[in-house]
């Protein structure tokens, strides 16, 4: 039983990426910080740089953009719910802020991060 718990813990930890150049690191941190205010910054960075960066950076930016688009969809749905919509939108904002801070930390430390609750809209 203990061995299974240890294996599960190891599977959820972020893994360190050895080769990330400083420009890609700056792009990833800008992508995560820009996503705090919405999906526009990650979208612009993804459109401009998706073909010129490493596989790790492309995967990270695509996951970040998918996460932001998923949050946007949840915002629209929450806005349609009377009375509770404002509360749900506040919870989504706080959740987005927390995930963006965690992703920023992972990007600045050259680690992979698996975003929770994403719809894979972009590949």
Choose one word for the global shape.
elongated
Uncertain segments of ≥5 residues (pLDDT<50)? 1-13
Give the CA-CA distance, first to last residue: 37 Å
Q: What is the typical, i.e. mean, pLDDT?
A: 81
Number of helices: 5
Number of strands: 0
Present the secondary structure layout.
Layout: H1 2-12, H2 22-34, H3 40-49, H4 55-80, H5 85-108
Helix pairs in contact: 2-3, 2-4, 2-5, 3-4, 4-5
Folded structure, characterized:
The protein has 123 residues and is mainly α. The protein has one domain. Helix content is 68%, strand content 0%. The chain has 5 helices and no strands. Helix 2 runs antiparallel to helix 3, helix 2 packs parallel to helix 4 and helix 3 runs antiparallel to helix 4. The protein is elongated, with a radius of gyration of 16 Å. The relative contact order is 0.17. The N terminus is likely disordered.
């Amino acid at each position: 039983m203990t061995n299974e718990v240890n294996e599960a813990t190891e599977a959820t930890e972020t893994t360190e990426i050895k080769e990330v150049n400083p420009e890609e690191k700056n792009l990833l941190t800008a992508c995560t910080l820009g996503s705090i205010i919405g999906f526009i910054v990650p979208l612009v960075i993804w459109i401009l740089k998706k073909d010129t960066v490493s596989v790790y950076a492309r995967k990270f930016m695509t996951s970040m953009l998918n996460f932001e688009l998923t949050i946007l969809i949840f915002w629209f749905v929450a806005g349609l719910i009377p009375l509770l919509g404002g509360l749900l939108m506040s919870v989504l904002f706080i959740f987005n802020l927390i995930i963006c801070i965690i992703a920023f930390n992972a990007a600045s430390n050259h680690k992979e991060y698996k975003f929770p609750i994403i719809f894979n809209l972009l590949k």
